[in-house]
Specification:
Keywords: Hydrolase
Number of helices: 6
Number of strands: 9
GO molecular function, one term: hydrolase activity
Protein name: Dienelactone hydrolase family protein
CATH class: Alpha Beta
Pfam family, one: DLH
InterPro entries: AB_hydrolase_fold, Dienelactn_hydro, Dienelactone_hydrolase-like
Number of domains: 1
Oligomer: single chain
Helix content: 25-40%
Distance between the termini: 26 Å
Length: 235
């Protein structure tokens, strides 16, 4: 039997701990107004589990989902891009995927979760982890990377069971158009299904309303399509 989570705060907004990757992991859970709904992971940018990521979880909860944002940095938050880069590099991809698999375990064990698969939405580093996780975990049925940064070679997508909806900025030097097309063709060749990878007149981090690159028109369109996609895939 999985360990019961430790919770604080109000029933609708909880800081939780749960077993993951042989250790105790931490995260933030937001529940929908009904108290029940399909489960969605929210995977952090390279900055850490910031207020922005918690706000995304809150917004998903308002749309009817049980949203879990796992803390991949164990409580640390970067204060500048140099520190964020060091923290990202200190988290091996395999370790991050193990931690996220534990978060899927926790999410599906919660009595409030009505789905038997989960969605995963991630940003920057977290967008890359959405793809790494979905490539190896068939319990992820909806994968939504926002400007996902892949660290190194693309994963093997031959085991991918999720549908993929990706959001990328046309002026994003971190994920240039040729990388997006390489991702599209790799997934299509290895799975037989082309992912839905969309481009927007924006740069990197265009969805983050706490960063200078925020582009509200692109962010709003991507959000509406993401919510509809998650409901379609998860209920």
């Amino acid at each position: 039997m999985p360990e019961r989570p430790t919770t604080t705060e109000t029933p609708a907004r909880q800081n939780v701990t749960f077993p993951s990757a042989g250790a105790t992991a931490h995260g933030y859970v937001a529940l929908p107004p009904s108290g029940r709904g399909p489960g969605v992971l929210v995977i952090q940018e390279w900055w850490g589990l910031t207020g922005h990521i918690a706000d995304v979880a809150d917004r998903l909860a308002a749309e009817g989902f049980v949203a879990l944002a796992p803390d991949l940095y164990g409580g640390s938050v970067a204060h500048d891009s140099e520190e964020a880069g060091r923290m990202m590099k200190a988290l091996p991809v395999a370790r991050g995927v193990d931690l996220l698999a534990g978060a899927v375990d926790h999410l599906l064990s919660r009595p409030e979760v009505t789905s038997d698969t989960v969605g995963a939405v991630g940003f920057c580093m977290g967008g890359g982890f959405v793809l790494y996780l979905a490539a190896v975990d068939p319990r992820v049925s909806a994968a939504v990377p926002f400007y996902g940064v892949i660290q190194g070679e693309l994963p093997d997508f031959s085991g991918l069971r999720a549908r993929v909806l990706g959001h990328y900025g046309e002026q994003d030097a971190s994920v240039p158009p040729e990388k997006v097309e390489e991702l599209r063709e790799t997934i299509r060749e290895q799975t037989g299904t082309a992912p839905d990878l969309r481009r927007y007149p924006a740069g990197h981090a265009f969805f983050n309303d706490r960063r200078p690159a925020y582009e509200p028109g692109s962010a709003d369109r991507a959000w509406r399509d993401t919510v509809a996609f998650l409901h379609e895939r998860l209920g």
